[in-house]
Amino acid sequence: MASALRIAQSLDPSTSPTSVSRAELSEIDASTKAPALFFLISSVLWLLAGTAFALISSFKMHTPEFLGDYEWLTFGRVRTAHLNTVIYGWSVNAAFAVAFWLMARLSRSVLRHPTLLFVAGAFWNIGVSIGIFGILRGDSTSIEWLEMPSYVTPLLFVAYALIGAWAIITFRFGKSKHIYVSQWYILAALFWFPWLYSIAQIMMIFEPARGTVQALVNWWFAHNILGLWFTPIGLAAVYYFLPKVLGKPIHSYYLSVLGFWSLAFFYNWAGVHHLIGGPVPAWVLSAGIAASFMMVVPVIVTSINHHMTMVGSFSALKYSPTLRFIVFGAVSYTLTSLQGSSMAIRSWSEVTHFTHYTIGHAHWGMYAFFTMVMFGSIYYIMPRLMLKEWPSAALISTHFWATSIGIIIYVAALSIGGVLQGLALNDVENYPVFMDIVELTKKYLLSRSYAGILITVGHLAFAVNFAWMLIAPRAKSSTAPTLFRNPSSMVITR
Amino acid sequence: MSDDNYKKSDPKIEQAAASDEQIQEVHSVLLREKSEPSEGYSPIPLLLLGFVSTMIFVVSIYFIHNRGGFTSGIGEAAMIYDERFDPKLHRPDTGVVKVVDPMVVGKRTYAQVCAACHQINGAGVPNGFPPLVDSHWVTGSEERVVRILLHGLSGPVEVNGNVYNGIMPAFGAGSAYNWDDAKIVYVLTYIRNEWGNEATAITPEQVTAIREADGARSTAMSADELLALP
């Protein structure tokens, strides 16, 4: 602990220069409590549901007869339910909570009429529930990333519009003169998401475009929802929590600017690299591939910025759960993005496309980057909302090691298996029979299931800790943060 | 935080929260955290700017070399699917007749369509789909093999001592596949001369003659019907 003198100073409003701004933060946090808690609780429940769907579909890949007799649990439905649950259930709910909590704090603005946000959140979750139910029932639209039946998508859009508008109103009423880099990303993402979602819905479902334009729109949407919605929210969280936990400024404002605008400029083009080899005009593909290569720029710039902020503070990783998850996510962002750029190379795409390699890449991005960053953020946000500490450091530790080791095994297994599968698929001479190739991938699919079980253990540890925190009574006196271990001097905060 | 200390709608919060020690204590979570993040102003390293410029340069070169006819506008390029297309080499009106190797085109069509049942190595699937390798149906009478592809084949058929009872769809003009005579020529020539098979190439004239002779037949052939043919 810090010296008694410093505690006394920090508790005395007349001597502490920051106590006024801290009081302001407490007011802001309190205003976000109800909706943020609602979104976080929903997201954790969806995470558990999504994990269950994930395990079922993973088992089916190597043991097809598993639950094969239930129409509702056939692979085509469960796998689709998994994707929609973890994307629109877990990830979007967590992204909402983190986005407007950060937005309120950074704008120094209390959330106005939090009840309305709560209602919008309820509608979003009702919409997702009906959508998942519809998918399991067999109403999937069969368009990747947009499988939810058309009877729920307008509801989702309206709920989203209300939530997005709320964060923007919070920004408009803000008192902060300086706009911090996290706010750029969140604001941009809040405008990008409705643009992507509405265009995709109209051009794919309600007034379908004809021919290959559909495929172009599909991949434009599916790739941009990662790059222009989840990536900016994830980066906003990294840009906030990295300097916040370390207590030092982000390395360079100029790098932040370059990173943001290069992402905004190039990402939008990159999605069509999924159609390499397809019946799409060659110049569209070449432009998409060029943009995918250019994505190396924002990735390198952002990772240099984060790394230079971290330099000299790596020992803090021993203590802070938030920092550890965030750094794991930030490193994964760099690696998976570079991998993504490489996958746009025509000759390499011919090998990896339509194989498990792509699935490994998708999970590296959505899980090892985005989900881990969200975990880190939740570990920081929850004590501020509840004014309580996390009940168990051991559970946090279990969560971290199970999910991080799990996802590393997952990505490694599918990447190796995927490349072997891709090489075999292109080698008609040696692999004339398709089933031989399936057999070839089986041990990698089994490894993926084992990794999935490990990740599930981590999620259960997280969910137990989360529920425990919700019901545990608040401590009467000042408390210390729950860290992996206690530092000799209390210089690290969570 | 007790409710009487501040009103939720009151944006003036300075006095409220800073004056009550009890609040301070409850808010130890907040008090211990570091200040809100700020930004440093380290300049961008020159090496990084050099890297960004290099990327822009390299990627532009890549696009120029793979632009697929995108020169004067989208109009022409919209229909070009080969990124190596070069308008200088593209002379639509030179009058050169394209020579097609039936083995190459046939192999491609076979791999895309036929291999789903007969397998890429032509061995078929035991008890499911008959083999094409070493089969008298394939290498034998041209009259028969052309009709199998044109009209399809259903019912029991004996191949190399095994009886298969399945349905092969029709591929000829007017069927669901609606292949033109040329495509049928390519595929048949391919399967008659691949995997060790050796037989004469099928000519377009043969296919056209048989198709016109049969008229608009909509039912599949049967093995007996075929065996009655020369």
Explain what you see:
- The complex is a heterodimer of chains A (494) and B (230).
- Chain A contains 15 helices and no strands.
- Chain A has 494 residues and is mostly helical.
- The longest helix of chain A is centred in the N-terminal third of the chain and has 44 residues, at 19-62.
- Residues 8-17 and 490-494 of chain A have low confidence and may be disordered.
- With 230 residues, chain B is mainly alpha-helical.
- Chain B folds into two domains: 43-96, no CATH class; 102-227, Cytochrome c-like domain (Cytochrome Bc1 Complex, Chain D, domain 2).
- The radius of gyration of chain B is 36 Å and the shape is elongated.
- In chain B, helix 8 crosses helix 10 (204-214).
- The interface between A and B is large, with 75 and 63 residues.
Arithmetic mean pLDDT of chain A: 90
N-to-C SSE series of chain A? HHHHHHHHHHHHHHH
User: CATH H level of the largest domain in chain B: which superfamily?
Assistant: Cytochrome c-like domain
Terminal Cα separation of chain A, in Å?
Answer: 14 Å
β-strand amount of chain B = 5-15%
Radius of gyration of chain A: 23 Å
Q: Give me the strand/helix succession of chain B.
A: HHHHHHHHEEHHH
Total domain modules of chain B: 2
Counting helices, strands and paired strands, the structural category of chain B is: mainly alpha
Q: Low-confidence runs of chain B (pLDDT<50, min 5 residues)?
A: 1-19
What is the share of helical residues of chain A? over 70%
The assembly state of the depicted protein chains is: heterodimer
Look at the structure and give the mean pLDDT of chain B: 79
Q: What is the CATH architecture descriptor of the largest domain in chain B?
A: Orthogonal Bundle
Topology, pairings included?
The complex is a heterodimer of chains A (494) and B (230).
Chain A lengths: L3 H8 L7 H44 L12 H33 L6 H24 L15 H20 L8 H26 L5 H35 L6 H18 L11 H13 L1 H15 L10 H22 L3 H7 L3 H31 L6 H33 L8 H38 L23
Helix pairs in contact in A: 2-3, 2-4, 2-13, 2-15, 3-4, 3-5, 3-7, 3-13, 4-5, 5-6, 6-7, 7-8, 7-11, 7-13, 8-9, 8-10, 10-11, 11-13, 11-14, 13-14, 14-15
Chain B lengths: L13 H5 L2 H6 L1 H4 L14 H20 L8 H4 L24 H17 L17 H4 L2 H10 L1 E7 L2 E7 L12 H12 L11 H11 L8 H5 L3
